[in-house]
Design brief:
The complex is a heterodimer. Chain A is of the alpha/beta class. Chain A has 12 helices and 13 strands. Chain B is an all-alpha fold. Chain B has one domain. Chain B has 11 helices and 2 strands. Chain B has a two-stranded antiparallel sheet. Chain B is globular, with a radius of gyration of 19 Å. Chain B starts with a helix and ends with a helix. The chains are: A alpha/beta, B mainly alpha.
């Protein structure tokens, strides 16, 4: 049985229409017109226990709105949601004990108090037993290195430390489900890596179901097997990440170091996209010409000193889907 | 189920939090004293050497101002209106909706913590000195003390309900300057915090008597100086309890509407 079930949910907001100009503003003082904005349109998905799912889409696609509906802060306009057997917005507080939430953009810790005080407060809020609290704190201290800043007020923490504290705080009550809304935003490479390792570990060892929204495609590539892609409030893709790569990743790049960087290449199915000193980037479609074939053709006219074949990063795939739409790409590739 | 231990934790943490902002406590105490000095001087000038006015001696009047300034120190030590509005504006309050506790109660208990800190380390020592060095009247009987404490506490709760209701109005309004002005006007004038109700013109006194604000300063302070006595005290407490229930009802209603709006409209 899926741990999260979302069926045909919609969320509309009524937004006050702003009139322009002086007369318009006067008019809107007396009579306001509202326009309906559809933030989420007919989205359905189900997630099994222990899955790690990337929930991605461009800004304003409806990611946070969906997460807020799953946490119970927002009521869907229509459709049904079940999280661990509970309808979140009907039993908001009960749902709260089943989920952990991290919003990368804001903290749930008490700003002016030493970090440890926030943990103690959360222990009371979620009625975590002393033994469990102690055990969890030991584990998190070890993996996340909380020791170094437990007695520092939250406002003095670095962003990386704050995020580590925040994620530990969200897991203090052992929720079976974890929502991460941009957990690596603004972090440096090392901090990002630490964060990812930790998420992987709790998923593997505690079977915590993780839903992750992010703009960092490396997060998705390293953490998730499955991704749900939404755009303009609609689901455009739901499935394996490797399948997306398979579908859209036919364009590859061959990077060759040749003796003369000015050399011309006249090969069907491949074109030069970039040159830098003696290095040349050639883009080719795997269906039209294979890599070995291409290399063979180049060696006929040039001597190759070094070469690599670059697979497309998921990022460039996603950005193409954002720009061109999913359906069109399906046809054109 | 009421989880006392949880709310008590909020009280403890808020107490600790106040300890972090020692300068804030000092500066607040400073401004409280400046207001005390100001109103003390104004009333000294108004009495102009007269022994009593409207049946109230100069000494009792001065005591009234000192006690009401003390109470305003207590009432001002919680989460201020602007801070709550800021929490509404940034959406912090909306996030608290997904926590397993009651938001209005959580802030009330946190306020108990910050008030306790301010009371112990600023108000109490300073006002003991004020009473030692200025010739003021103290209640003779212990009953008066007890009644003063009870009415002051009810007054605190009334003020909390009103202030919180005003804060939650910012869920519905973009610009809240007007609301804040109305609140502070009612708080300073209609509550009798600086001018006792008996000096009001008749129509204004009637108006103020029928409003909840007098329960915050006027009733406890008047009991302290012995202006309200006997059966009048029972009547005053009944009025306070009536207003407390009404204001609590309003707070619950506004909070209910606000949280509904958040979940439907996204705040």
């Amino acid at each position: 049985m899926p741990i999260i079930e979302v069926n045909n949910i919609n969320k509309d907001f009524m937004v006050a229409k702003r009139e322009t100009g002086f007369l318009g503003s006067v008019r809107s003082l007396f009579k306001r017109e509202f326009i309906k904005k559809e933030a989420v349109k007919d989205i359905s998905f189900s997630i099994e226990k222990g899955e790690m799912v990337g929930y991605i889409g461009p800004n304003g696609a409806g990611k946070s709105t969906t997460i807020k509906m799953l946490t119970g802060i927002l009521v869907p306009s229509s459709g049904t949601i079940k999280v661990n057997g509970i309808v979140p917005y009907e039993q908001r507080q009960k749902n709260a004990s089943n989920i952990g939430v991290v919003f990368g953009q804001r903290t749930q810790l008490w700003w002016d108090l030493p970090t440890i005080e926030s943990f103690e407060l959360l222990k009371e809020i979620y009625q975590v037993s002393d033994a469990r609290y102690k055990q969890n704190m030991e584990i998190y201290q070890e993996i996340l290195g909380l020791d170094e800043f437990l007695n520092t007020p939250v406002r003095q923490l670095s962003l990386g430390q704050r995020m580590r504290a925040d994620i530990a705080a969200s897991l203090l009550h052992d929720p079976p489900i974890l929502f991460l809304d941009e957990p690596t935003i603004g972090l440096d490479v090392v901090a990002k890596e630490k964060m990812r390792t930790f998420i992987q570990e709790i998923n593997r060892e505690r079977k915590v179901t993780v839903i992750l929204t992010t703009h960092d495609m490396e997060d998705i590539e390293k953490l998730c097997n499955r991704m749900v892609l939404i755009d303009h409030g609609q689901k455009v893709y739901d499935g394996d990440i490797s399948a997306v790569k398979e579908r859209f990743g036919k364009i590859r790049t061959l990077v060759v170091d040749v003796e003369n960087g000015e050399a011309t290449f006249d090969i069907v199915g491949a074109e030069v996209v970039k040159r830098e000193a003696n290095r040349v980037w050639l883009q080719f479609n795997r269906d039209e010409i294979s890599a070995s074939e291409l290399i063979g053709r180049i060696t006929q006219t040039h001597s190759i000193k070094d070469l690599t074949v670059e697979e497309p990063a998921i990022e460039s795939i996603i950005s193409r889907i954002y720009q061109e739409g999913f359906e069109e790409k399906l046809v054109s590739v | 189920m009421f989880r006392m231990k949880l709310y008590w934790t909020f009280t403890k943490k808020a107490f600790l939090r106040s300890a972090v902002y020692r300068f804030d406590v000092l500066s607040r105490m400073g401004s409280n004293l400046i207001f005390l000095l100001m109103w003390g001087s104004i009333w000294t000038a108004l009495y102009a050497g007269k022994e009593s006015a409207d049946g109230v001696t100069f000494q009792a009047m001065l005591t009234y101002i000192v006690v009401s300034q003390f109470l305003s120190g207590i009432n001002g030590a919680g989460t201020p209106l602007w801070d709550m509005q800021e929490k509404v504006r940034t959406g912090d309050i909306a996030l608290e909706l997904m926590r397993p506790f009651d938001v209005p109660l959580r802030y009330l208990f946190a306020d108990f913590g910050s008030v306790a800190f301010y009371f112990m380390f600023a108000l109490l020592p300073v006002y003991i000195l004020v009473f030692l060095f200025i010739d003021l009247t103290l209640p003779m009987s212990w009953e008066t003390w007890v009644l003063f404490l009870i009415t002051a506490f009810i007054g605190f709760l009334i003020r909390y309900c009103i202030e919180m209701s005003f804060s939650f109005l910012s869920f519905f309004l973009v610009e809240t300057g007007g609301i804040v002005d109305i609140f502070y006007f009612a708080m300073s004038l209609l509550s009798g915090s600086v001018i006792p109700l008996w000096f009001f013109p008749d129509w204004l006194e009637k108006l103020a008597i029928y409003m909840p604000f007098q329960g915050i300063y006027y009733i406890p302070t008047s009991i302290f100086i012995g202006k309200i006595t006997g059966v009048e005290i029972a009547f005053s407490i009944a009025t306070q309890i009536f207003w407390l229930l009404v204001c609590y009802g309003i707070l619950r209603f506004v909070w209910h509407k606000a949280s509904q709006k958040v979940v439907v409209q996204g705040g």
